[in-house]
């Protein structure tokens, strides 16, 4: 069960992530992560903003993502866990239907993604 206040942490963060991806703004996407974020995308994992920026810079122009939060849980005063379905598309032809797990951490910059993991939905 998701708590409304915890969703209020994740939704703006994931909305900004979605918008930065649609704008093909790799630097903007990376800025939403902590400096030492653990990132497990569909390519080999990386740690930190520079690797995350390289990952998104290598994605095709026109990439879009839509997500649906399925579960949100508070892990502590400064951490929120979220599980979502994320649908990545590039036009009508290319589509990746993924599970997305994130841990958001409250930092001096505000809420940032400290852990990101995707896996194929079955």
Automatic annotation (TrEMBL):
Extract the Pfam families matched here: SnoaL_3
Gene3D superfamilies for this protein: 3.10.450.50
Q: Which domain of life is it from?
A: Bacteria
Q: Which SUPFAM superfamilies does this UniProt record tie to the protein? A: NTF2-like
- Domain (SnoaL-like): give its ranges: 13-120
Name of protein:
SnoaL-like domain-containing protein
Species this protein is from:
Paractinoplanes atraurantiacus
């Amino acid at each position: 069960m998701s708590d409304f206040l915890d969703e209020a942490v994740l939704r703006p963060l994931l909305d900004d992530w979605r918008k930065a991806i649609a704008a093909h703004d790799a630097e903007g996407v990376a800025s939403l992560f902590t400096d030492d974020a653990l990132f497990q995308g569909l390519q080999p994992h990386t740690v930190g903003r520079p690797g995350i920026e390289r990952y998104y810079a290598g994605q095709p122009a026109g990439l879009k993502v839509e997500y649906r939060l399925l579960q949100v849980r508070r892990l502590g005063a400064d951490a929120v866990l979220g599980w979502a379905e994320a649908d990545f598309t590039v036009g009508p032809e290319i589509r990746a239907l993924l599970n997305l797990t994130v841990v958001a951490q409250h930092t001096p910059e505000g809420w940032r993604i400290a852990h990101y993991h995707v896996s194929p939905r079955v």
